[in-house]
Specification:
By secondary structure, this protein is of the alpha/beta class. The protein contains nine helices and 16 strands. The protein has a single domain (about 5-280), classed as Aldolase class I (TIM Barrel). Strands 2-3-6-7-10-11-12-13 form an eight-stranded parallel β-barrel, surrounded by seven helices. Strands 1-16 form a two-stranded parallel ribbon. Strands 4-5 form a two-stranded antiparallel ribbon. It is globular.
Length: about 280
Amino acid sequence: MSQEKTIITVATTGAWPKKENNPNVPMTPAEIAEDIYACWKAGAAIAHMHMRDDEGNGTMDKDKFRQTVELLRGNHPDCDIILNMTTSGAAFFPNEECRYEHIVELHPEMASYDCGSMNWMHSGLFLNPPAFLEKLGKIMQDNHIKPEIEAFDPGMIANAQYYLKKGVLKAPLHFQFCMGCANGIPGTMKNLIFMKETMESLCPGSTWSCFGVGHSAMTMLYGAVALGGHIRVGMEDNVMYAKGVLAESNVQFVERARRVIEEFGKKAAIPDEAREILGLK
């Protein structure tokens, strides 16, 4: 089935774009919940979740996560989308505990695991120290949450291999190749193939997805489908649908991804198919 089905992840919000960048970015728990539901109906199997405070800034406020989940599940009990919550290493969060309190309380099926530190957007730091990664890996195992290993360069794949050998992570791993981010690996087909081959060499048996930021978005979309991977789309990564054209909604990105997948002769995975592919219980 994994050869025929492609998982679409929608990253609706992120920590950066504001309404002034695109008025259609969902920001409140109610907006995010309704957006996730609409994207699920359009073909997304996973929702990667970030929250915003009342000023529109990125936040790890567990109450915001709880409100969003309660609104989504309460208003749309038919929605079986897989929830994948961020544990972001952005340096503006006040403490380490706020990066995992929400996943311990809410038990999403997946959460991000950023497998290394780096400069961020030429302006700050993205901090994931070794001690934190070891603690986070244990927390995810204890709470039966599958890590989505975000790799911004091939060194982070090697880090994942180290933590796999150490028992901090458990196979089979699932990677999200983050392509074209400032200070990370550029989003080209050559680099995507290199990331895939590095993963296959160091962590055989793993599954993978990717996204491309900005102008690399379409290359990564087509590349993921052609190379047998999975794809992430959404306003966390791009507020423009095309050059000079603001995205009208996250649904617009999901619908395009689904069209590309179907034109290639595959089908977008429904959530239960994604669970089977990723080994989720």
